[in-house]
């Protein structure tokens, strides 16, 4: 990489410095999970093994954001080649628009309960990555996660905050017997665990052990699948064992744009990484003079708005998209969208291309392998559904399906919905620079754009790139900014017609990690940010 990063203090940066290592590195939002991944590296595993260990561990030590019933995506750099894994699940065969209408859901699927549950892909991702690229057996790789689930761990401060929010939410919306297993599992003493309090889950440990011993067969075809099926049938859900049996993670070709000499990589739809690439493609038509400049922020926001509104219209299961990725990422279409950006904020409308609650982790090893991995239940704890006695908290991704038959993301059984979670990766001249990611729902492509531009346009080291105050476009001309966002910039944006609001919850602005590799020396540079309890564990 051309840029040489040091620990220079940048405006708005935290007191954290970047972390260096050369034999291995794991960066994620929970220190215990990062250390679990590092432990696997020291036991002889590679970056892929470390990623699996960290991901499995995060289902235990950060259940507020993901679980065994999550979906997952990965970008994997091995021997000079980047591989993409889409481990999001499809809609159950019984989850039909007709069934939704009969159940009284005319406009959208509910957020919670069994209805929005689609097939979980995370256990399949772990098994698939292990089989294709791992060095160690899955039983060894999942051992740290099993240990934490069985013997417990003290809950960290940020985790306790969001655990309490999840508990309070399900107290309000979690009516009925189907929600009882959630409270039994995650609030066994009648409340969310507090910071420093030890929490454990034997059911979680037993499930992880069965997944490890069977390479996830127990989850998709065995006794765990039977338990998911029985729980769903008992409480009027739609997912069945046959849906689980039909599931296989999908290897996909990553998509990219070249941004000022660097190739920025994302997973193709049904993920929203396309939005980040589309926004960068629009933005690269400008020369930005300074980061803390109103013109820079204005053009970033306008480019993201245009990209996002296109993404919301077109992104879905690629078999159902009415336009292609190539169409959206064409230079011609980027130029067309760029022409709409003037001196004043606009309310974006979708264009017509020419036809033609999440956890993130990054790992690297001394051999040059690197992984960008993301895993999520959605909306914190997901659906609120936990299969009794198993610790399996099920995601609620089906909520993103549209019930409008004219929409690309219209609900169809067996279809994959628009997905918010996206891993990112950077290369230059065919060599890996490294993995990066910013978790947090619809913030994710916006965080990717801001981190990439901070790195490439403004030469910030990875810690400073993550620390920089962020903005979040929500709708129309409304942009929410962090409390430490520069006031003079915010006021100047208002004068350009933006509706600027100050945010108060740091979770709304994402939580990210980065690992960059110096290909001449092999030195790894890692960063995590102060919006989470994260750690960079280096060797």
From TrEMBL:
InterPro entries: GGT-like_enzyme, GGT_lsub, GGT_ssub_C, Ntn_hydrolases_N. Transmembrane segments: none annotated. The keyword Transferase applies. Keywords: Transferase. Gene3D superfamilies: 1.10.246.130, 3.60.20.40. GO terms for molecular function: transferase activity. Pfam families: G_glu_transpept (PF01019). Signal peptide: none annotated. This is Gamma-glutamyltransferase. It comes from Halalkalibacter okhensis. The lineage of its organism: Bacteria, Bacillati, Bacillota, Bacilli, Bacillales.
């Amino acid at each position: 990489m051309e840029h040489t990063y040091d620990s220079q203090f940048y405006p708005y940066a935290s007191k954290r410095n970047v972390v260096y290592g050369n034999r291995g590195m794991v960066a994620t939002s929970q220190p215990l999970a990062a250390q679990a991944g590092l432990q696997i590296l020291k036991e002889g595993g590679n970056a892929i093994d470390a990623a699996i260990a960290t991901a499995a561990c995060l289902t235990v030590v950060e259940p507020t954001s993901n679980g065994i019933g999550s979906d997952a995506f990965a970008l994997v750099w091995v021997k000079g080649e980047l591989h993409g894994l889409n481990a999001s699940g499809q809609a159950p065969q019984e989850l039909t628009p007709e069934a939704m209408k009969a159940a009284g859901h005319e406009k959208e699927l509910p957020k919670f309960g069994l209805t929005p549950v689609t097939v979980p892909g995370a256990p399949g991702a772990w098994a698939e990555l292990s089989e294709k690229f791992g060095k160690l057996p899955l039983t060894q790789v999942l051992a740290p996660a099993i240990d934490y689930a069985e013997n417990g761990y003290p809950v960290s401060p940020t985790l306790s905050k969001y655990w309490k929010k999840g508990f309070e939410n399900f107290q309000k919306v979690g009516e009925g017997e189907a929600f009882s297993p959630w409270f039994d599992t995650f609030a066994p003493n009648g409340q969310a665990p507090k910071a420093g309090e030890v929490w454990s889950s034997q059911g979680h440990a037993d499930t992880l052990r069965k997944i490890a011993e069977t390479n996830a067969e127990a989850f998709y075809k065995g006794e765990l699948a039977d338990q998911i099926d029985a729980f769903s049938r008992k409480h009027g859900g739609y997912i069945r064992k046959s849906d689980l049996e039909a599931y296989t993670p999908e290897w996909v070709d990553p998509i990219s744009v070249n941004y000022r000499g660097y190739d920025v990589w994302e997973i193709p739809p049904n993920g929203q990484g396309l939005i980040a690439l589309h926004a960068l493609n629009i933005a690269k038509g400008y020369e930005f003079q300074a980061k803390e400049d109103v013109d820079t922020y204005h053009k970033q926001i306008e480019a993201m708005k245009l990209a996002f509104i296109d993404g919301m219209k077109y992104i879905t299961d690629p078999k159902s998209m009415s336009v292609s990725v190539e169409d959206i990422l064409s230079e011609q279409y980027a130029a067309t969208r760029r022409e709409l950006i003037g001196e004043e904020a606009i309310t974006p409308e979708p264009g017509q291309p020419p036809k033609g609650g999440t956890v993130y982790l990054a790992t690297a090893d001394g051999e040059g392998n690197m992984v960008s991995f993301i895993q999520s239940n959605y909306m914190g704890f997901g659906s609120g559904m936990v299969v009794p006695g198993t610790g399996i908290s099920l995601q609620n991704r089906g909520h993103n399906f549209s019930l409008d038959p004219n929409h690309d993301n219209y609900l169809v059984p067996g279809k994959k919905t628009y997905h918010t979670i996206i891993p990112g990766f950077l290369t230059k001249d065919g060599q890996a620079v490294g993995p990066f990611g910013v978790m947090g729902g619809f913030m994710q492509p916006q965080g990717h754009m801001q981190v990439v531009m901070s790195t490439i346009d403004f030469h910030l080291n990875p810690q400073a790139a993550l620390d920089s105050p962020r903005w979040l476009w929500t709708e129309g001309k409304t942009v929410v900014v962090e409390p430490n966002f520069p006031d003079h910039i915010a006021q100047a944006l208002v004068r350009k017609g933006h509706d600027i609001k100050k945010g108060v919850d740091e979770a709304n602005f994402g939580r990210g990690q980065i690992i960059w590799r110096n290909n001449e020396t092999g030195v790894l540079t890692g960063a995590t940010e102060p919006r989470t309890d994260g750690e960079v564990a280096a060797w």
